[in-house]
């Protein structure tokens, strides 16, 4: 039995594998022949003239399912006894790039702790290709991010040969907590085939932020002083320390502790909310000024902390004027000299204005006193300038009048005398309205 090797590409329909002929020198039925192959193979024999046969594929072959076939061709004559002979053909199925790469996962979730060192190996992505040779050799790449503002090229890179992912720089949880991108795997076939997978990177928080105190501010300015009445009961709320932490989870859980106090045992700090309260009743023997040092600590590993200084002033009551601490007043004066200059300038302007008003009043009084001593009459130079009395009952005075005041020395009385109106044609109308409104008023003036 001889063997013939033939190679055929996969995915071809009714492809000729081999053409051969058979012969038998006998005559009659002894020389008639029948060729056959096993029925479980995707091939068939196609007879032709002069005992020629063609071996043809029955269906398209798939190299990924079976890459090699051994076909035994049996030739039997019709004599008695029947004689037979066999020939073997080995069919090799060659690969065609008909399979796309496949990732082991459609999506990957990776965790990276913040403050990582650059070039850190995060993880790997992997894909396989069921083809053979160059058709199965893969190249990995990063795909453009969906978010155009994500600086992916500066965050991660991928090894084109093995799919290893190396953070390019240190990641900061407070700036970027998570980001997502795509990776591609492309084979080297012709035409090349590729596939994609999604990668999501989660940045894990590290305890790299200390607590920050929002109140009271510790910015180097004059310290804030809390007032506490001496009549306060035990548990009186003095103030509350407010702090935040830029971390997350247990790294941001804060606790408060009183480290130092001017008089231990007088004040206490609640550990969970930062409330500063009196621990007992106050007495006259307690010092009026107290300084408290409070520590704020997070629950990270290792823990981080910050401290804040509180100033407390004991007063007899809230009606008592508040006087800042001497050192605080001095620091405030040095820190804000502009305020002092503004106060001095405002006081100077106010003094000059008050002095001008006093001089004006004095001059007016002197003139009036001189006129009274001479017993003369002073007549203003123009019409009556102020708000006039309504004598017509209509709410307005339709014209202006001139008047004179005659002061007689020693008499202690003054006479009020109307002069002629500026516009005589309105005088009659004015007198008629006065007479109609109040006749007794007219009689009074006539008798005088």
UniProtKB/TrEMBL annotation:
Domain Cadherin: 15-103, 104-213, 228-323
Keywords per UniProt: Calcium, Glycoprotein, Membrane, Repeat, Transmembrane, Transmembrane helix
Family annotation (CDD domains): Cadherin_repeat (cd11304)
Topology in the lipid bilayer: Single-pass membrane protein
GO BP annotations listed: homophilic cell adhesion via plasma membrane adhesion molecules
Compartment(s) of residence: Membrane
Membrane spanning residue stretches: 340-363
Family annotation (Pfam families): Cadherin, Cadherin_C_2
MF (Gene Ontology): calcium ion binding
Cellular component terms (Gene Ontology): plasma membrane
Protein name (record): Cadherin domain-containing protein
């Amino acid at each position: 039995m001889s063997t013939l090797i033939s190679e055929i590409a996969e995915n071809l329909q009714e492809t000729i594998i081999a053409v051969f002929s058979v012969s038998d020198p006998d005559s009659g039925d002894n020389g008639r022949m029948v060729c056959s192959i096993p029925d479980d193979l995707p091939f068939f024999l196609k007879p032709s003239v002069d005992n020629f046969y063609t071996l043809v594929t029955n269906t398209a072959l798939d190299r990924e399912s079976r890459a090699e076939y051994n076909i035994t061709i049996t030739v039997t004559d019709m004599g008695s006894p029947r004689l037979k002979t066999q020939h073997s053909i080995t069919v090799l199925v060659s690969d065609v790039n008909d399979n796309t790469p496949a990732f082991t996962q459609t999506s990957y979730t990776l965790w990276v702790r913040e403050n990582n060192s650059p070039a850190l190996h995060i993880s790997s992505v992997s894909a396989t290709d069921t083809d053979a040779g160059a058709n199965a050799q893969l190249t990995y790449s990063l795909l453009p991010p969906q978010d155009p503002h994500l600086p992916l090229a500066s965050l991660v890179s991928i090894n084109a040969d093995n799919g290893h992912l190396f953070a390019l720089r240190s990641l900061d949880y407070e700036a970027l907590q998570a980001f997502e991108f795509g990776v591609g795997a492309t084979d080297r076939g012709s035409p090349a085939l590729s596939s994609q997978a999604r990668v999501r990177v989660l940045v894990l928080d590290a305890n790299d932020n200390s607590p920050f105190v929002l109140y009271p501010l510790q910015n180097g300015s004059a310290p804030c002083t809390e007032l506490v009445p001496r009549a306060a009961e035990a548990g009186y709320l003095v103030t509350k320390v407010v702090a935040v932490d830029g971390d997350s989870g247990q790294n941001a859980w804060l606790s408060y502790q009183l480290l130092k106090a001017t008089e231990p045992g007088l004040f206490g700090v609640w550990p969970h909310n930062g409330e500063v309260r009196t621990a007992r009743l106050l007495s006259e023997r307690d010092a009026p000024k107290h300084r408290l040092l409070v520590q704020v600590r997070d629950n990270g590993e290792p823990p981080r902390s910050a401290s804040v200084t509180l100033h407390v002033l004991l007063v007899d009551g809230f009606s008592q004027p508040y006087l800042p601490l001497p050192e605080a007043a001095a620091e405030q004066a040095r820190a804000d000299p502009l305020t002092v200059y503004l106060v001095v300038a405002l006081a100077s302007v106010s003094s000059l204005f008050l002095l001008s008003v006093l001089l004006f009043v004095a001059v007016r009084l002197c003139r009036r006193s001189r006129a009274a001593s001479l017993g003369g009459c002073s007549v203003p130079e123009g019409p009556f300038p102020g708000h006039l009395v309504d004598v017509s009952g209509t709410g307005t005075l339709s014209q202006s009048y001139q008047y004179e005041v005659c002061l007689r020395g020693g008499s202690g009385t003054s006479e009020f005398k109307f002069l002629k109106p500026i516009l005589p044609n309105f005088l009659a109308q004015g007198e008629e309205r006065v007479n109609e409104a109040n006749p007794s008023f007219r009689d009074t003036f006539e008798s005088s």
